[in-house]
Amino acid sequence: MCKLCTDHGRGETWYLNFENYLFRKVFPTLEGQEAAKAKMAGTFADTEWRYAEKEFVRNPTYLRQRASSGAGGQLVTMEEALRILALAEEATRREDSLVVVGHCPCKQVYRGARDYTCIGFGMPVTMAMEIAYGRLPKEGLTEFGGAEWRTLRHGIRKGAKVPLTLDEAKGLLAEWERRGLWHLVVGRGRLPLIEAICNCERPYCTWWRYRDALGINDYCLKGHYIARIVPERCSNCGACQEQCQWGCIHTSVWAQSTSIDLTKCFGCGICRAVCPHDAIEMAPRASVPTARDLW
Q1: How far separated are the first and last CA of the chain, in Å rounded?
Q2: For residue 16, what are the CA distances in angstroms to 2, 221, 224, 256, 285?
Q3: Which residue, among 175, 111, 117, 109, has the nearest Cα to 143 in the 3D structure?
Q4: Coil vs helix vs strand at 200
Q5: What is the arrangement of strands in the sheet containing 100-102, beginning at the earlier edge strand?
Q6: 31: exposed, middle or buried (C-beta count within 10 Å: 0-12, 13-18, 19+)?
Q7: Where would you tag: which of 151, 162, 182, 208 has the fewest CB atoms within 10 A of its CB?
């Protein structure tokens, strides 16, 4: 089991435990709900919209503290992402929450563009309206010359999808996979509460940056599945190698073979999305001895 399952799974995979999608189950008392609300407000005001500022994204002490106090994420396959969204949708029936598509703040900061590829849930509507987009800073630019926040505020909701249905989500996830976007299920500082599926890629994902640059693995754990080649179907076309963002796939023209380094595979499944011959399968990580404990 991965660390997040051990800490938050209650004996099962942490993101398949339905209780982790219920705000009032995770925070059953009014005092706990108010404390979580204050923490949510602080997250939006102090971190979510300041990804490019040095004191946040380059401060390992701060980021380790944040990880130890309830922030974490793990890559999932599309099938798992759909199961997660089904659980999130069921949670909306029990609480006043929504499943929504919003823009990716990572790409806003690092690419200067709004790309609506983040699926959010888990926050009661009344709290979301009070503490989320309305609390964006009124002044200041990002380190890399991004949009001025007071200008950004006027267009931040353009392109958002509220609410998102499961049928719509299925089509979006498939489209994003073909584009090369992975699916990262996250808790944004209030674990075990699960709050989003971020669909992003290596150049922009801040959660991946925390792991890659600072070695804080909890922000982007490898998935519970791992990609494997089905040799009799593989044509060695190289599409999977081009799609892979982890450098774990190698196609040899000389040997007419394609192989996956299972110790490097993160289990996102985006290589499978572009295989023209259905020659990649996702196997449980626990079934692969060399990769079983590599999270």
Answers
A1: 9
A2: 13, 16, 12, 40, 16
A3: 109
A4: strand
A5: 71-76, 182-188, 196-200, 118-120, 100-102
A6: exposed
A7: 151
Which one, of 181, 159, 171, 157, lies nearest residue 76 by Cα? 181
Report the b/e string of 226-265 with b at 16+ CB within 10 A.
Answer: bbbbeeeebebeebbbebbbbebbebeeeeeebbbebeeb
- Between CA 87 and CA 74 the distance in angstroms is 17
- Residues 192, 17: Cα–Cα separation, whole Å: 10
Task: Give the angle 122-127-132 at the CA atoms, nearest 5°.
Answer: 90
Question: What phi, psi does 3 have (nearest 5°)?
Answer: -65, -40
Rounded (10°) angle between helices 60-68 and 206-214: 120
Q: What is d(CA 14, CA 191) in angstroms, rounded to the nearest whole number?
A: 10
Question: In degrees to the nearest 10, what's the CA dihedral of 155, 157, 158, 164?
Answer: 170
pLDDT grade, residue 99 (50/70/90)? confident
Check residue 230 and report its DSSP letter.
Answer: -
pLDDT exceeds 80 at position 145: no
Our measurement of the distance from residue 53's CA atom to the centroid of its chain's CA atoms, rounded to an integer in Å, reads 21
Structural tokens at position 41: 């407000």
Q: What is the mean pLDDT of residues 276-284?
A: 97
Amino acid type, 118: C
User: Mean per-residue pLDDT for 161-183?
Assistant: 89
Residue 135 and residue 39: Cα distance in Å, rounded?
13
CB 184 within 8 A of CB 197: yes
Over residues 175-218, the pLDDT tens digits come to 999 999 999 999 988 899 999 999 999 989 989 989 998 899 99
Taken in order of first residue, the domains within the chain and their CATH numbers are 3-219 (no CATH), 225-287 (3.30.70.20)
Encoding tokens for residue 239? Answer: 């599409």
